[in-house]
Specification:
Butyryl-CoA Dehydrogenase, subunit A, domain 3, 5 helices, mainly alpha
Amino acid sequence: MIGDEGTGFLTAMRTLDHTRVTIAAQAVGIAQGALTYAAAGRSERNDKDLTFFGAAAKCFASDVAMQATVDAVQVLGGYGYTREYPVERMMRDAKITQIYEGTNQVQRIVMARQLLAGIQSDL
């Protein structure tokens, strides 16, 4: 028996508090593998579709980072907006990733052109 009699539910809930953190880490790893690593492989090989995948990875990952940090600030309320908590800086850092190396609006244009070029070459 783990814990005292009658504390099984409480013990289970406290265990889940710790294991949920590992599930969050797993989800982050899966997200990285879905776009960033696919684009990185294309970069290493200098694949012909790197322009599309590079733009897509940058655009998607930076949008996700921005949304995650905005949500974190929102959850913390006014505290999240102060320099006392690191999410304030993280939100600023996430925002710049949507801007430099070509804004995400430009990345969407790049992706659209690549897709249209592929469609035209198929005709």
